[in-house]
Amino acid sequence: MIARSFLFVPGDRPERFFKALATEAHQVVIDLEDAVSLDAKAAARDQLASWLRTGMADTERGRVMVRVNAFGTPWHAEDVAMLNAAEVRRVMVPKAENPTQLADIAARCGRNVELVALVESVAGVVAMRQIAHATGVVRLAFGSFDYSVDAGTESSGRALDYVRSQFVIESRFAGLQAPIDGVTLATDDAQLIAADTLDARQFGFGGKLCIHPKQVDAVNRGFAPSDAERAWAKRVLAALAENPRGAISVDGKLVDKPIVDRAKRIQAA
């Protein structure tokens, strides 16, 4: 199943790591970047390294991702070295703008690393096709608020429609999983979170960044196929199995290859 919810937790709050893992978040993103003050970054890295060695159960390792500090910052190289030593294989790279830098990070992280490239600037959007094809990158994520500040646009409504479409198009063109949409700042507005998730899904996104555990359930449900969609997919595939070579119709509509492909994606979700 494709990961849908990505829950951030501050890297300098190790007491929250287990709480985050106790949620239904598909990926817990321990954040060494924006969530940690400049004077606490080294200590946060050391605390995380200790937790990765002795505090985290091996069964949870696949759910842990780390957002490192950006390439070129004073903390980046040591962040990556620590993750390589700890054999962390899921890394979120902020300020992704340069495919060569991403390939370099992948090489330093070691074999089988999976990079999520967080695109959050105009330069990153312009270079998105190259970023999507960079070595190690398995998925794109949209840093929508940082992008809006950089571009001088609104961070909600139709202002970001064009950019969101680019994420979906470039992800598909590169053969990546569906991209991850940016955060919703409201943590107690369930209707807004559900609406934002639905909007992202309709664009073609496959997941969403979360900043609070309260957002996780709505995101997971919002990106999952509905019961009606699953039932429809089951009917399509059953009809195909009964008549694999002839024309078939389901619910009064002709079924062709794109419809079958959609049904298979729903079944696999």
CATH fold category name of the largest domain: TIM Barrel
Radius of gyration: 20 Å
User: What can be said about the biggest beta sheet?
Assistant: 8 strands, parallel
Beta-strand fraction estimate: 15-25%
Output the structural class: alpha/beta
Structure description:
By secondary structure, the protein is of the alpha/beta class. The chain contains twelve helices and ten strands. Helix 9 (190-203) runs parallel beside helix 10 (216-223). It is globular, with a radius of gyration of 20 Å. It starts with a strand and ends with a helix. The relative contact order is 0.11.
In short:
The protein contains 12 helices and 10 strands.
Topology:
Elements: E1 5-10, H1 17-21, E2 27-31, H2 41-55, E3 64-67, H3 76-85, E4 90-93, H4 99-109, E5 114-119, H5 122-126, H6 128-132, E6 137-142, H7 144-151, H8 161-174, E7 180-181, H9 190-203, E8 207-210, H10 216-223, H11 227-242, E9 248-250, E10 253-255, H12 257-268
Parallel strand pairs: 1-2, 1-8, 2-3, 3-4, 4-5, 5-6, 7-8
Antiparallel strand pairs: 9-10
Helix pairs in contact: 9-10, 11-12
